[in-house]
Amino acid sequence: MSMFKKILIANRGEIALRVIRTCKEMGIKTVAVYSTADKDSLPVRFADEAVCIGPAVSAESYLSIPNIIAAAEITNADAIHPGYGFLSENAKFSRVCEEHNIKFIGATPEQIDGMGDKANAKATMIAANVPCIPGSKGLLKDLADAKKTAKVVKYPVILKATAGGGGKGMRIVWKEEDMEAAWDGTRAESAAAFGNDGIYMEKFIEDPRHIEIQIAGDQYGNACHLSERDCSIQRRHQKLVEETPSPFMTDELRKKMGEAAIKATKAVNYEGVGTVEFLVDKHRDFYFMEMNTRIQVEHTITEEVINYDLIKEQIKLAAGDKMSGENYFPKLHAIQCRINAEDPKANFRPSPGKITSYHSPGGHGIRIDTHVYAGYTISPNYDSMISKLIVVAQTREEAIKKMKRALGEYIIEGIQTTIPFHQKLMEDPKFIEGDFTTAFMDTFEF
Fold first, then answer.
1. Residues with Cβ < 8 Å from 102, sequence gap 6 or more?
2. CA gap 435, 431 in Å, rounded
3. Does residue 154 contact residue 170 with C-beta atoms inside 8 Å?
4. Catalytically annotated residue among 294, 338, 367, 396
5. In terms of Cα–Cα distance, which of 399, 376, 401 is closest to 387?
6. Topology (CATH) of 209-443
7. 156: cis peptide before it, omega within 30°?
8. Taking every pair of C-alpha atoms in the chain, what is the biggest distance, in angstroms?
9. Residue 340: beta bridge partners?
10. In Å, what is the CA distance from 234 to each residue of 116, 406, 437, 441, 442?
11. DSSP 299-351
């Protein structure tokens, strides 16, 4: 397969701009699609062509498969990059692209179906000998089945929507008396959010680390991993800070988790870049959680420690390039802070509005991925993340110091942002020591 001539980016914001930049460097023409709310955005300005695909509401624009395919056809795009979120893990979209002879720069419909359904993904991983959390064998039939399974798995357990994501469709159950309410609540939330009320159960791992392995696979069965990212600092299952390498990792654990991630990748003949996510308990036993069949928000820190463009790799793999299959073990340290339009002093309440003043930090080892500028209006219609601040240094200690300096230089006025939260986090003794789990934010006081 020859390299693409024109790529349509089926996304918005910083990731759309990120893909456009790489395409330009590769000599590939770009098409931005946008909603009416994003007509003044930087992706629209910097793409070679731009097509309005609908109103501000996502369902009628960024989630509208017919509108996006029509934009690709009228601009003669031969590939579509979905970014993350929106349609990036939508098997139907991948299939429709295939039917229209447009290359979907991501996983195949079969791979998305296989990994998107959590119960099916777990069965695949067990067959591939990848460590999995004890739990139900497939979906639970009813409440009686849930109670029976919980007695075998042992409390606490967690009920999960098979089609879940983004922290939705999950309930922790500490004892049998609470099962009925949790069962009803999880099914109702899952049906409303995903149109699917299928539920499965897992043993609830208390105070784990959330550690993911970046993987890549080509169309010829080769696969490699690019080491780990620690995403344990999160709130309501939404990541706030990511770093690589993990301060919790040992050489032995990295080797074992890397091998498990490769097994997972090969089990589904994965094509493209993706992530295998694990929960790691205090004994450093790890368990498969899910596989993300797309580029991650936090791909940036991996890029910084390996000095390579993962979007470029994604495009090359989609075009049929072959990989060497060489694994990577980091020698530098990178941290990413997600800067959101939220007020951390008001329980992280969204803070849309116009940015009146904007100044980004600079200097050695500093990277900003953003689509905002002075005068830009943050819309209430989309995700609240407005930028990603990434630092890279020789050691974790140096990276934390660099991040503190960069956050001090970062000025965004007119709206509330999470910059003050990150500044406090970088001063926190437990964070500095690397002593944290996914429960860290439960006791962090701001």
1. 69, 72, 77, 78, 79, 80
2. 6
3. no
4. 294
5. 376
6. D-amino Acid Aminotransferase; Chain A, domain 1 (3.30.470)
7. yes
8. 61
9. 385
10. 22, 21, 9, 7, 10
11. HHHHHHHHT--HHHHHHHHHTTPPP-------SSEEEEEEEESEEGGGTTEE-
Instruction: Read off the tokens for 180.
Output: 């009925």
CB under 8 A, 24+ apart: contacts of 441-446: 441/233, 441/234, 441/235, 441/240, 446/344, 446/345, 446/420, 446/421
Residue 7: partners with Cβ closer than 8 Å, 6 or more residues away = 19, 23, 28, 29, 30, 31, 77, 78, 79, 80, 81, 105, 315
**Every domain of the chain and the residues it spans:** 6-105, 134-203, 209-443
Among 3.40.50.970, 3.40.50.20, 3.30.470.20, 3.90.1530.10, name the CATH number for the domain at 6-105.
3.40.50.20
Spell 96-121 as b/e; 16+ CB within 10 A means b.
bbeeeebbbbbbbbebbbbbbbbbbb
* Threshold 0.85, pTM exceeds: yes
The token pair that represents 10 in the structure block:
């089926």
At the fourth CATH level, which superfamily is domain 134-203?
ATP-grasp fold, A domain (3.30.1490.20)
Distance CA 11, CA 271 (A): 21
For every one of its 446 residues, what pLDDT tens digit does the chain have, with 9 covering 90 and above?
Answer: 689 999 999 999 999 999 999 999 999 999 999 999 999 999 999 999 999 999 999 999 999 999 999 999 999 999 999 999 999 999 999 999 999 999 999 999 999 988 877 778 888 999 999 999 899 988 999 999 999 999 999 999 999 998 876 677 899 999 999 999 999 999 999 888 788 889 999 999 988 999 999 999 999 999 999 999 999 999 988 999 999 999 999 999 999 999 999 999 999 999 999 999 999 998 899 999 999 999 999 999 999 999 999 999 999 999 999 998 899 998 999 999 999 999 999 999 999 999 999 999 999 999 999 999 999 999 999 999 999 999 999 999 999 999 999 999 999 999 999 999 999 999 999 999 999 999 999 999 88
Question: Is 95 in the active site?
Answer: no
